[in-house]
Structure to design on (302 residues):
């Protein structure tokens, strides 16, 4: 059960009011055989806890956003807490995440999912199947195009491969790529053959965020999926695969703001925070601030 809500947000708005965005969390998705996802299940609570220091300041000026979070208007985002998932209850977890995503989209509101490992992204994206086509912008150090690992096709190494098979996915930009992961030459070629635009962290550092943003069509409906290891471990040490050369906090929040201006942010997920490897709560704090900027970007959409 969720003991506190992000930024102290309510879990519902007054009768007759529809939220702009709804945050929820899912600790477990599709676990690989013999692997334990329980450490990732601690991530959402860590992020919520890190946000509490800012809760009394919610109406104050935010210099990242150029004004108060909700622009001196009533609160328009809610946190509905953790949905019920369990380790290795893979099919049931996927069904619950998809159903919750569909429920939020039907309001209509923007769903914001806190994972959990990267496997929760697959059912989250499935939840958009009944809506208009979407573009995926994946911010991640890794490609995530494995077809299967240990016989499992819905695990954390496969979300972008599975997304490429969904009819409602109009296109994909994958940015922040660096170092080495599970991808081999075949996965890279498959991603490129699908039409995914691959933008490395080095390209972002050398040419700026718009080297990635330019690939998204004007007016597109965008779902941003953010793996915490996309950020440099100097500010995001709490990940399982620390890799030097990652994105900065300012690059990530500028990307989110630019995407909100380029098109319309239709959904967002944040995954792969690994609290047991965090240092003095730095990762959870960084993740919390990214979420604040994401909510601010949504609230500034027409």
């Amino acid at each position: 059960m969720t003991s506190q809500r992000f930024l102290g947000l309510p879990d519902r708005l007054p009768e007759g009011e529809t939220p702009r965005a709804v945050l929820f969390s899912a600790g477990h998705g599709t676990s690989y055989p013999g692997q334990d996802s329980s450490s990732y299940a601690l991530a959402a609570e860590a992020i919520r806890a890190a946000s509490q220091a800012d809760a009394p300041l919610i109406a104050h000026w935010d210099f990242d956003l150029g004004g108060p979070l909700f622009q001196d208007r009533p609160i328009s985002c809610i946190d509905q807490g953790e949905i019920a998932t369990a380790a290795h209850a893979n099919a049931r977890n996927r069904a619950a995440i998809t159903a919750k995503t569909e429920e939020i989209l039907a309001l209509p509101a923007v769903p914001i999912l806190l994972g959990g490992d990267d496997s929760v992204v697959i059912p989250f994206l499935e939840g958009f199947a009944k809506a208009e086509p979407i573009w995926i912008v994946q911010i991640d150090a890794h490609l995530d195009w494995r077809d299967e690992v240990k016989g499992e096709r819905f695990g954390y190494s496969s979300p972008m491969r599975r997304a490429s098979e969904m009819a409602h996915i109009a296109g994909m930009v994958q940015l922040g790529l660096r170092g080495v992961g599970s991808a081999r030459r075949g996965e890279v070629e498959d991603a490129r053959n699908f039409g995914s635009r691959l933008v490395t962290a080095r390209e972002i550092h050398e040419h700026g965020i718009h080297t990635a943003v330019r690939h998204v069509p004007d007016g597109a409906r965008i779902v941003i999926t953010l793996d915490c290891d996309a950020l440099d471990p100097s500010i995001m040490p709490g990940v399982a695969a620390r890799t030097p050369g990652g994105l900065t906090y300012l690059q990530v929040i500028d990307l989110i703001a630019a995407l909100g201006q380029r098109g319309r942010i239709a959904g967002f997920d944040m995954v792969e925070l690994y609290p047991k490897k965090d240092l003095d709560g730095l990762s959870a704090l960084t993740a919390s601030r990214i979420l604040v900027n994401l909510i601010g970007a949504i609230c500034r959409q027409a």
Notes: The radius of gyration is 18 Å. Strands lie at 21-25, 61-62, 67-68, 77-82, 110-114, 134-139, 169-177, 197-200, 221-227, 264-271. Residues 6-299 form a domain with the Arginase; Chain A fold (CATH 3.40.800.10).
